[in-house]
From TrEMBL:
Species classification: Bacteria, Bacillati, Actinomycetota, Actinomycetes, Pseudonocardiales
Any one of the GO BP annotations: oxaloacetate metabolic process
Protein name: Beta-methylmalyl-CoA/L-malyl-CoA lyase
UniProt KW keywords: Lyase, Magnesium, Metal-binding
GO MF annotation terms: lyase activity; magnesium ion binding
Record carries keyword Lyase: yes
Length: 356
């Protein structure tokens, strides 16, 4: 581990200074596309107007014989597209794969000025982030980049979960962490074959009402990912970086997808992955606070003045802690409103009504 005194020193001569604060840019959806797939690539310019983050995926879901094509495709798309204020990320191949070194060398050299964040899969511990950190510094210096690339880890190995706090704090480049439920399930030897989401077998049951152990007992399905998401959120909050839900693989089941996204949102995640265009609007809806909640938050903040003491608003007690909760919602709403004029209007109208 680096000494705290050296934490913000560049790791290579000529590399840009690391950032001291991770920008809280809207990233409600990280939209995955395969840059070697011509149909998906053709949708990128339009998607860039709709999503907060576009991610050119080079890892799993890209065929082994298309890895070079995907890397080259991403370089071409990045050079040809005006992304506006939409961020461009990539997911590189895993650190033990034959492709990752060329992924990093090519992408940083060719499009390092266009890329915002590099997502690193199957991170096991801080050592993986340290390796990427130094290599990126060398490549940034060689490419003459003035802005450091940020790093995002996928939480998808049992040891990654055990080490999540040290991963979150491993480098000033750490932008955030996403849950990777598919690889994580395999790594843990969980017995679900689903990509994210619940499982009907993971449940609790009410007590028996009489002698019959089957009659009248309601069951409630539980969230397989609750523990990991909560732990990830704490690790990220502790280190000032951003937590995300990951993939929801049942593309057809837009209802359960929305539920899973909302659980993550309520627990503290700022966004999710979207794997198919149909998931984009769901993510946008879920990860933007509702106008009525924004209006309430603004009303509490306005009524609390300097935030000290306790007051009653609409029958509910408010104090220092609850005003902080309200600030979380109101500040997120302000950030999203800057990017989204429709949302701004909805938030302002709801606030006007609540304050009237
Ligand atoms: C599980 C662990 C992980 O690592 S998850 C992350 C890795 N996986 C991915 O990135 C998967 C990305 N998504 C996909 O590959 C596709 O959406 C899958 C799931 C295969 C479905 O594709 P397909 O059968 O073509 O769906 P469809 O016919 O409903 O598509 C309609 C049109 O939309 C397009 N499309 C599809 N997905 C995307 C996408 N992610 N980005 C941009 N465009 C997409 C399709 O190409 C299709 O286009 P067209 O209308 O035929 O021109
Ligand atoms: O990469 C994502 C996962 O769920 O595995
Ligand atoms: Mg994975």
């Amino acid at each position: 581990m680096r000494s705290p005194k050296d934490f913000f020193a560049p790791l290579a001569v000529g590399a840009p200074d690391p950032v001291r604060e991770i920008p809280a840019l809207p990233s409600r959806m990280i939209h995955f596309f395969d840059p070697s797939n011509a149909k998906m690539a053709a949708k990128v310019p339009d998607l860039a107007k709709k999503v907060d983050v576009l991610l050119g995926n080079l890892e799993d879901a890209v065929r082994a014989d298309r890895k070079e094509a995907a890397r080259q495709g991403l370089v071409e798309i990045a050079k040809a597209t005006d992304f506006g204020s939409t961020q461009l990320w990539t997911r590189i191949n895993s650190l033990d794969s034959p492709w990752v070194l060329d992924d990093l060398i090519t992408l940083v050299t060719e499009i390092g000025d266009k890329l915002d964040v590099i997502m690193v899969p199957k991170v096991e511990g801080a050592q993986d982030i340290h390796y990427v950190d130094r290599l990126l510094a060398q490549l940034e210096a060689r490419a003459g980049l003035r802005r450091p690339l940020l790093v995002h880890a996928i939480l998808e190995t049992a040891s990654g979960v055990a080490n999540v706090e040290e991963i979150a704090g491993a480098s000033p480049r750490m932008q955030g962490i996403s849950l990777g439920p598919a690889d994580l399930a395999a790594s843990r030897r969980m017995k679900t074959t689903r990509v994210g989401g619940g499982h009907p077998g993971y449940l609790v049951r009410t007590d028996p009402v009489g002698e019959d152990l089957h009659e009248g007992r309601t069951t409630y399905q539980q969230d397989l990912w609750h523990y990991t998401v909560a732990r990830m959120v704490d690790a990220c909050a502790m280190h000032g970086i951003l937590p995300y839900y990951g993939p929801f693989g049942d593309i057809r089941d837009v209802v359960a997808c929305e539920d899973q996204f909302r659980n993550a949102f309520l627990l503290g995640c700022v966004g999710t992955w979207t794997l198919h265009p149909v998931q984009v609007d769901i993510a946008k809806r879920v990860f933007s606070p509702e106008p009525k909640d924004v209006a309430w938050a603004r009303k509490v903040i306005a009524a609390m003045g300097d935030g000290t003491g306790a007051v009653m608003i609409d029958g509910k007690m408010q104090d220092d802690a609850s005003v902080k909760q309200c600030r979380v919602v109101a500040e997120l709403a302000d950030k999203l409103a800057e990017r989204d004029p429709e949302l701004k209007q909805a938030y302002d109208e709801a606030t006007k009504e609540a304050l009237a």
